[in-house]
Amino acid sequence: MTVYSFYIFDRHAECIYKRRWLPRPASIVGKSSRNESPAQSGPAGTGQTMRATDDDSKLVFGTVFSLRNMVRKLGGDEDNFVSFNTSQYKLHYYETPTNIKFVMLTDTKSPSMRIALQQIYINLYVEYVVKNPLSPAEHPGGVGVNNELFEESLEQFVQTRVLS
Amino acid sequence: MAAPPRHSAMLSVSNAAATPQSGSSDKSQTPQQPSTPQPTQGLRVPSNRKTIYDRHLNRSRNAELSRASFAYLFAEMVTYAQRRVTGIQDLEKRLNEQGYPLGLRLLDLLFYRTTTTSSSALSSSSTSSSPPNRPLRILTLLHLIHGPLWRLLFGRSADALEHSVSPDTPNEYMITDNDPLVNTYISVPREMNQLNCAAFVAGIIEGVCDGCGFEAKVSAHNQPTEMWPSRTVFLLGFGESVMEREKVLERAGIK
Amino acid sequence: MPSSTRTVFSLIIINKAGGLIYQREYQAGLRSLSTNDYLVLAGTFHGVHAITRSITPKLPLAQTSPAITSPGGNAPVGFTYPNPGVPASGLEHLETEKFRLTCFQTLTGTKFLLFTDPMTGNVDTIMNKIYELYADYVMKNPFYQLEMPVRCEAFDRHLGAWLRGRT
Q1: Kind plus residue range of the DSSP H or E element containing C114
Q2: What is the DSSP code (8-state) at residue C94?
Q3: Which of C37, C39, C96, C100 to mutate to test the interface with A (most CBs of A within 10 A)?
Q4: How far, in Å, CA of B154 to CA of B197, rounded?
Q5: Which among A15, A119, A120, C123 is least surrounded, fewest beta carbons within 10 Å?
Q6: Is B186 close to C154, i.e. CB distance below 8 A?
Q7: Contacts of C86 in chain A (CB under 8 A)
Q8: How large is the ipTM?
Q9: For residue B76, is pLDDT > 50?
Q10: CB C43 within 8 A of CB C23
Q11: Where in the sequence does UniProt note compositional bias of the Polar residues kind (chain B) (predicted)?
Q12: Is 0.90 topped by the overall pTM?
């Protein structure tokens, strides 16, 4: 299984975290956050994909937001949109009761990542971001999410998923 | 010129026609040369010269046609007939007129095929065992339409043949088709529910009747049933002259 | 539960401009919306479908061969799609807890949206049959105007009968 990218959107529809992986194992190239983010990092070679990535996150949000509303309209308020796939990728979606949205793009053959996204939320996001006394309550521009513990454990989490 | 040898290699039969042309042609025609021999191998003129026109009429008797291509063609015919019509009756009249000449021509083919292949198919209508005559009485004509004509057109007989029960209209006959081929893919809009596109087939029938010397008006009517939603009744009304002649023939004992 | 394994809730057909041209419900299970809501849904889905294709991950090619550019791409550097042999498509299947949405787009841009039970198998077969019936009873109907709402009684009849026959 290959993971292409991962996004977190907060309840203000803002992308507070995103990360892209390349198919070659253990190499992170497209790692970036919003332009104004102080925690912006990544090798110099990724500048070219920066803008495209930024637009992508808005498109991804628009997509999941529209689909979520459509699904609720048809399936009722308690229905949830789980995933969709195209010929090229599969998008997994998980929404917390507090309206934080976790989105992951993987290859088409991947199994359901619903549990995995939930684990990321419970074991990583809550543990390292919410419980971090230094991180603010809201994360405009991704402040506070880009902390080392969260990023590293996310990296590890995805790596084990890829290998398994 | 380098072109002719390549052509002769490509074409087997038609190069006989292509080579003299290229030899006699002047310079202005040479740019067209590569493209002109191409169509000779196309659908219209196959290389073995066996076009649909060269085929023996009896040979294509059992040849099958694509139902889809017919459906598209017929859909275009209906669309064409729909242009500049004033109403449903006008549209049915146009469809009828499209079918009429077809009926006239089909009759010849029908007779030709029944004489050469099986003398038994129409032997009931003929006085001798050899070539069948054209039908003289209404009933033989109706049987010709119900059976051989329907089989020629649709591969099966029509489903029912009735005479009008009303004493006022002894000249009316009904031929029923439970599922007319022409209407297979057609859904008539609700606001035109009187329309039946089988008016085209009615035109064919009219042509066949006229070709046999039976003046008649033929129309198609919807008579849907639960099982056959597109059931169609073709109403044949023969002219007075035909009915008079019929009486004379009956007295004379001609069948 | 054999009945739920082949449940087809409803079918929507969207023309190439994103307009709703057909909507029928076959079995209860989803909320029914007003005609206006269905029109909005068709338009929304049409847009989302296009976006889902555009957010296809583009994998940069190796730096040693920067000259190669994938066909159809507008990115300045060479990239490839995850499944290189397959053209990038929009949303094809969508799964929720209650239903499964299958979208089939014809080469001419018409979209068929089929809502089924998540357990329903052989959705592709159903979709093929629907496409076949559409080609027969809609496209061959002289009274059907292209891109306009489908009002073909024969299409309704055959599709309904076929879907009923399956269950």
Answers
A1: strand C111-116
A2: E
A3: C96
A4: 16
A5: A119
A6: yes
A7: 87-88
A8: 0.83
A9: yes
A10: no
A11: 11-27
A12: no
A45 pLDDT exceeds 70?
A: no
What does residue B172 show for φ and ψ, rounded to 5 degrees? Answer: -105, 135
Q: Residue C48 and residue A62: Cα distance in Å, rounded?
A: 8
Q: Quickly name the fold that domain C3-57+87-165 has.
A: Beta-Lactamase (3.30.450)
Supply the mean pLDDT for chain B. Answer: 79
* % chain B with pLDDT above 90: 55
Return the HEC string of B189-242: CHHHCCCCCCHHHHHHHHHHHHHCCCCEEEEEEECCCCCCCCCEEEEEEECHHH
Amino acid in position A138: E
Cα separation values, C54 from A89, A157, C113, C125, Å: 11, 28, 20, 28
Question: Which amino acid would we find at residue C66?
Answer: P
| DSSP element (H, E) containing C49 | helix C35-54
Out of A5, A52, A67, closest to residue C94 by CB? A67
Specify the residue for token string 């051989």.
Answer: B148
Structure tokens given for B135: 């039908």
Residue C89: burial class (beta carbons within 10 Å; 0-12, 13-18, 19+):
middle
Mark yes or no for CB contact A84/C86 under 8 Å.
no
| pLDDT classification of B3: cutoffs 50, 70, 90 | very low
Q: Are strands C111-116 and C100-105 parallel, antiparallel or unpaired?
A: antiparallel
Contact (Cβ atoms closer than 8 angstroms) between residue C22 and residue C149: yes
Q: Is the distance from CB of C94 to CB of A67 less than 8 angstroms?
A: yes
Contact A26, A37 (CB under 8 A): no
Touching, A vs B (3+ Cβ pairs under 8 A):
no
CATH topology of domain B88-117+133-252: Muramoyl-pentapeptide Carboxypeptidase; domain 2 (3.30.1380)
> What does the angle CA A141 – CA A147 – CA A150 come to, to the nearest 5 degrees?
110
B27 pLDDT higher than 50: no
Is A86 close to C91, i.e. CB distance below 8 A? yes
Q: Give C106-112's long-range contacts (Cβ < 8 A, gap of 24+).
A: C106/C131, C108/C16, C109/C15, C109/C16, C110/C13, C110/C14, C110/C15, C110/C16, C111/C13, C111/C14, C111/C45, C111/C46, C111/C49, C112/C11, C112/C12, C112/C13
Q: How many whole angstroms separate alpha carbon B98 and alpha carbon B204? A: 8
The full 3-state SS of B4-45, as one line of letters, equals HHHHHHHCCCCHHHHHHHHHHCCHHHHHHCCCCCHHHHCCCC
Strand partners, C121: none
Residues within 8 A of A (CB atoms), C 8-67 only: 30-31, 33, 37, 41, 44-45, 47-48, 51-60
Query: Are the beta carbons of C143 and B192 separated by less than 8 Å?
Result: yes
Exposed/middle/buried for B179, CB within 10 Å: 0-12, 13-18, 19+? middle
- Show residues of chain C in contact with A109, CB under 8 Å: none
Distances in Å between the Cα of C63 and the Cα atoms of A49, B52, C60 are 14, 61, 8
Q: Looking at the complex, report in whole angstroms how far the Cα of residue B78 sits from the nearest Cα belonging to chain C.
A: 6
Is the Cβ pair B187, C136 closer than 8 Å? no
User: How many C-beta atoms lie closer than 10 Å to residue C107's C-beta?
Assistant: 5
8 Å CB contact of A87 and C57 = no
Inspect the interface and report whether the beta carbons of C151 and B189 lie closer than 8 Å.
Answer: yes
